[in-house]
Design a protein that fits this description.
The protein has about 270 residues and is an alpha/beta fold. It is built from seven helices and eight strands. Strands 2-4-5-7-6 form a five-stranded mixed β-sheet, with helices on one face. Strands 3-1-8 form a three-stranded mixed β-sheet. Helix 2 packs across helix 6 and helix 5 packs antiparallel against helix 6. The radius of gyration is 22 Å and the shape is globular. The C terminus is likely disordered.
Length: about 270
C-alpha cells in the first residue's frame, strides 16, 4: 500500500468512526424521546382511566354505546402507552427484572377485562383453563404485558363469532400459556417477521410490529420464549417461561399495583 492509499484508508476509517458516533448519539436521543413521550402520556392516562368508570350510564341509557366506545378507545390508548413505555425501557436498558408471587390466571382475567368491548363487538367467547395449583414466582409486570399483547392479537385477528381458548399448564419446571384463536395465520414468509418491531408490510396481518415484538423481548428478559403455530383454521401463540427458583420479593395481587409507578395525577373519587 503506497502513501496515497494509506491516507485514503485513514480518511475512510475516520469517516466510519464519525458515522458510528453519530449513530450512537442518534440512538440515545431516540431512547430519551421515547421515554419522555411515554412519561408525559402515562400520568394523564392513569387519571383518565380512574375517572371513566364513574361516568358509566345506567343500563338501557342511550348514551351507553357512546360510553363504551369512549372507554374502549381509552383502553386502547393505554395499551399503546404501556407498549411505548416498555419499548423505551428496553431501548434504554433500564428494565430490571423483579420477582413476585403471582397467579397467571388472574393476570389473564385482568387483561381480558381490557378487551371486553372488542370481544363484545366481535361476539368472541373466551375460555380460560388453568391447571396450576399454586402461584408462580416471576416478573408479574412483564408477564402481564406479554399476555396482554398476545391476547390483543387474538382479539384483533381472531374470527368473529368464534372462541378463543387460553390454557395455562405446568410441565416440569416450565409454565406454558397458549392462546388459540380461530382465523388465518400471519401472512409472512418467516416467523421472525411477526416478532420484528415495525416490520414493513405487517400492518393488516397479525401484529402491528410493536406488541408482539415487545412480548418476545420481555420473554427473553425472564428467560422465556414465545412462538406460534398455525393450521387451516386457527393460530396458537405459546409463551413458555421457567419457574423461577428464587424467593419472591412481594406478592402481586393484580396488574394495577405494578403497571403504573406514578399516581401523582390520579384523581380519587
Amino acid at each position: 500500500m503506497n502513501e496515497q492509499e494509506n491516507e485514503e484508508f485513514a480518511f475512510l476509517s475516520r469517516k466510519i468512526l464519525e458515522l458510528n458516533k453519530q449513530l450512537m448519539e442518534s440512538e440515545k436521543v431516540k431512547s430519551r424521546f421515547l421515554s419522555l413521550i411515554a412519561s408525559e402520556l402515562n400520568n394523564p392516562m392513569t387519571a383518565l382511566l380512574g375517572m371513566i368508570p364513574h361516568l358509566t350510564p345506567p343500563a338501557g341509557d342511550p348514551r351507553e354505546e357512546i360510553f363504551e366506545l369512549a372507554h374502549d378507545e381509552a383502553l386502547l390508548l393505554e395499551s399503546r402507552i404501556q407498549n411505548l413505555v416498555a419499548a423505551s425501557e428496553i431501548e434504554s436498558g433500564m428494565m430490571d427484572v423483579t420477582h413476585a408471587s403471582v397467579n397467571p390466571e388472574k393476570l389473564v382475567e385482568e387483561a381480558l377485562e381490557e378487551f371486553k368491548y372488542k370481544l363484545k363487538r366481535k361476539n368472541i367467547s373466551v375460555i380460560v383453563e388453568s391447571s396450576l395449583k399454586e402461584k408462580i414466582v416471576t416478573d408479574p409486570k412483564k408477564l402481564y404485558l406479554i399476555l396482554k399483547n398476545i391476547i390483543a392479537n387474538a382479539c384483533d385477528y381472531g374470527d368473529p363469532d368464534a372462541i378463543v381458548n387460553i390454557n395455562i399448564v405446568q410441565k416440569g419446571s416450565e409454565i406454558i400459556v397458549t392462546v388459540k384463536n380461530r382465523g388465518h395465520g400471519p401472512n409472512v414468509k418467516y416467523k421472525a417477521q411477526v416478532f420484528t418491531r415495525f416490520a414493513e408490510g405487517m400492518e393488516g396481518s397479525h401484529g402491528l410490529g410493536l406488541g408482539l415484538s415487545i412480548a418476545r423481548e420481555l420473554c427473553g428478559l425472564i428467560d422465556g420464549k414465545i412462538d406460534y403455530e398455525t393450521d387451516e383454521t386457527s393460530v396458537t401463540f405459546t409463551v413458555t417461561i421457567p419457574e423461577q427458583a428464587v424467593q419472591a420479593d412481594s406478592e402481586a395481587c393484580g396488574s394495577n399495583e405494578f403497571l403504573f409507578e406514578s399516581f401523582d395525577d390520579a384523581i380519587e373519587l
